[in-house]
From TrEMBL:
Keyword flag Repeat: yes
UniProt cross-references to InterPro entries, sorted A to Z: Clp_N_dom_sf, Clp_R_N
Organism, scientific name: Streptomyces cinnabarinus
Domain Clp R residues, every copy: 2-189
Name by which UniProt lists this protein: Peptidase
Keyword Disulfide bond on entry: no
Record keywords: Repeat
Basic residues biased stretches: 111-122
Stretch list, region Disordered: 104-125
Record Pfam families: Clp_N
Length: 189
């Protein structure tokens, strides 16, 4: 499948690996894909993000992804659902971090032992699903190649932290589609 990726899509995938390495993560996840998309310039995906006002709010997205990582990758919707069952995720995170240090629930290895050497990082199931979904998005649109815009569209349709974070910043599948393909007028929320 990787041979169908454009140069920009390949850069997102390799950028996601670099994001994972920098953070000390064991695996490359969907948040790393989003961070790599945010770092891109002069591509269709970066154009869509800039048109929707995300270029100047990158740090806010990074913070939201970091907070979710501290909650062991739980989205705010998942944390809210647990709260409905009487489980206070913020309290659990606070207690774990009190004993094991800040970021202990993130799954990252930063500051813990030797950590993982630079090199191969496996992709999480969700990240793999996103890349497969990007192929489906491209095929559905009649595109022969998978671009970074298809990865962005796939991230907006897959439940989880990246889609929730993007939606909180006014970036949804509908707004991205409108910006990329001119189907109506897109407005950031």
């Amino acid at each position: 499948m990787f041979e169908r990726f454009t140069k920009d899509a390949r850069a997102v995938v390799t950028g996601a690996v670099e994001q994972a390495e920098r953070s000390g993560a064991r695996t490359v996840d969907t948040g790393h894909l989003l961070l790599a998309l945010l770092d891109r310039e002069a591509s269709r995906g970066s154009f869509a993000l800039a048109a929707l006002g995300l270029a100047e709010r990158k740090e806010s997205v990074r913070e939201a992804l970091g907070e979710a990582r501290r909650r062991a990758g739980l989205s705010q919707a998942e944390a809210d659902a647990l709260a409905g069952l009487g489980i206070d995720v913020a309290e659990i995170v606070a207690r774990v971090e009190e004993v094991h240090g800040v970021g202990a629930m993130s799954g990252d290895r930063k500051g813990r032992g030797k950590g993982r050497r630079s090199g191969h990082r496996p992709f999480s199931r969700e990240a793999k699903d996103t890349l497969v979904r990007s192929l489906r998005v491209a095929v559905a649109r009649g595109d022969r190649h998978i671009g970074d815009e298809h990865i962005l569209l796939a991230l907006t349709t897959q439940p989880g932290v990246p889609a929730e974070t993007l939606a909180d910043h006014g970036v949804t599948n509908l707004t991205v589609t409108r910006v990329l393909y001119g189907e109506g007028e897109a407005k950031a929320g």
